[in-house]
Fold:
Amino acid sequence: MSEETGRASFILSNEMREYFEKIGISKSGKGESRTGYFPTNIHPFYLSMIMGIAKKKMAAPTEMKKDMVDEWVSDARAYEEELDGLGFYLHCKSLGLVKDEADNRILDEMKGFFEGEVKYTNEGYQLMNKYAQGGFKIIMDRIPDTRDLADWLSIYLSILEE
Amino acid sequence: MVTHKLRILGMKWENVRNFEQLPNPRLGIKKFEFDQEGWTLKQIQNNYGKTSTMHLLRSCFTGDKMPKDKLKGYRYRQGRTDWGGDPEAKVEFSVMLSLDEEIFQIRTVIDWKNKTQEFHTYREGAQGDRPGWNPPAYFASLFEGKTAFADLLILNGEVAKDMNRATSENTIGMAIRQVTGLSSVCDLIDEQGTEGRITGLVNVLEKTAGAGGRKTSDLDDALDECREHKAWAEGERDSIGKELEELEENLDEIKSELLDYDDKYKSSNEDFEKAVTAKERAKSALDREVRNILKQLFNPGDGLGDNVWEDVKEFYGTQIRGKLPGEATGNFFQELTEDEDECICGTPWDKEGVMKKWVLTHKENYIDSRIHPRVKRMQKKVVESDSTTDIGNLKAGLDAKRKAYFQAAKRERELRKDRPEKERKRYKWLSTEEGKLDRDQKNLQHNFNLFNSENRDFIIAEDLDYHVKTNNEKHNNITIQPHIFRQIENLSQIKKVEENLLLLKLQTGESAEKARGAKILKEVLQESIARVLQEIQKELEVKMNDFASKMPGVDFEITISESRLIFTNANGDIQEDVNESGELGAVYGLVSALNEYADISLPIVVDTPLAGFGKGMAKSWKDVVGMGFDQGIALINSSEKDSLRFWWEQEELVLYTWLRENEEVRTGKDPGGGDATGTMYIDDSLETFNQYEIDVGYENRDTGGGE
Structure:
């Protein structure tokens, strides 16, 4: 089942959660990593999203049973403006607006992307969720069995660097 | 992101200790303003009035008057009027603040002759300056009477020392209750020998109605069923807890046996001991590196590399140059047509509404007032952002730490091979068993937490509140249906249902029943609050240690007790005396953790902040404290100014220097070498800040401060 539309939050789909919990997410208290866990759910979500962006791969988010946060929390909070900036840039780029100099159409897109002070519209979340799911597919494919966080991160960085 | 933002905008002094009138109407700056999103350094000679300013500021924040016997100490002390001060006059100090969009000023006037102190509050749109301490409600809820919390934001070395010693004041426990908003709930229950408000209510109810009462409603039946279900959940929890305990005992035995082996070889083999220590160190370094990289990667400039990020920066740079979005918001045009009788050009609106229609068409060219500051902030931050590293460097750093750990582990394994065959086999079996039990322990602990945890994040992440919520407002949006609440496993959520049933009962029951219900409610609240406080304390400890560990001199684990901070060294021993730098580091960590917990971005004001650290630690202080708070104000002397030169010379900070009219900048003395004379004023030039007391020899200056 797809979660492509309708969620006004980030999506860490069931399969993503299951995968990353095997390594370990602090709050769940489970995991096989010997070098620490992901501190929160936002960490694996973000790492998946960055992978998707770097590799230009998007995919429709799959089912998410549990709720997920709808703003940049934890370590991400320190960079929320930069992350806003990245998300909106990608949105405009997908519409072919990045080469337009201060076009008023960008204003309309701002209204349709940001919601209040910290949240996004469904369209905004959709874009980031698609990149996260796309990035996760690469991760699943390239790092299927590594369960130690330090080892996993090392492989992840290699792929990102390629 | 926090919901509220408090900032200190400026301060004024009149006849306070050595200050005649500041800002001085004749000399120096006319308006004394602070950096709203960074640090302001105020360079003031020792004994000029730094500590007094801190006390006055605390008083203005909390609305608490200062002790009467101390009031005289704030009077103007120069004993002369020709500098512009009046030794007979009342003392006046004011601080201008902004809370979210509202600007307000709290002013205190001290009549030291009659030993009285009063407050005045100015609020925009509230008929000017009015008597009394009446700041915005949210500010009052944060600070009113909360000296313990204010002490942490307006921080000096003495406060820090008190935090680290057992005192009867219970400052830390109070501060935690105050910042988390639990203090008002704690007032309801009996704590530390103080009778709470519920006990008072129970006493009154029992007097008027006596004991007794009978069950009359469905709520009673639901409550009984809820308690029965709670007993089941407690049973399940205890059963898993017992299993967990046994497993942990088993695990401890295995770990202990492994340690015995290690110790045996440690004591007989120096190399092995070194190898074990090296492995442990390498493991800690690797864990830290992993954590740092996880943080670092959130900077998209680092994670995506310059190619992509430069495009993003260019995109927003173009918008800024094109002044997009414009300074006005869509709401401006809407409000203009709705609230004003005429257009901004002075022409009254036409009856046909053509003008308004025309103005409103512009609305679409501007964005919403809530999005506007977000977009502006985003553009500025992105354009000014830098990649601090790249993926290659991050990976190289991580792999170096991984390699170091593998080598250290390999070395330890090799040395272990020297042991007898039988011991080696036993050691290997124990290690495997340890790994297996570790995993089982984590799983069991998780199951235990499903029943027992009160951690909000965990409950949300595991959906443990799913069967609690309803849409029925009459029932406070909490289920009262037994067939639904019987599906809840988590005890804190079951208790939530129980508390709600009790509340509903209280709303409908008779006096005696109300009294009984109130008693039960008090018991439940007491238990819940104790657990919540414990949970908060744990969370604060993690955040505090994370922050404090970056400070020089903090090489111990810090735990919080009700009355003090406890330092435990690497050997697990409690350290009664830690160095001053460590004490301050711990308190900065606590303040940072509390700030993070509050739903507000707060300023911090520090007096002679390097006093406990020494010159060599200025860089670390700046890296950790200087970067750790949204708005900072430091009252420093010239020696600290010199130690922090690398900071204010490189970054754009707001810099002020306090001077007397005849004082020579380079010496801090009058020409001829006498004490500085003339009216005091504030200078905001970089040159003065740089050269102040430059000829004195900073190493000879006292860094201690205080008056």
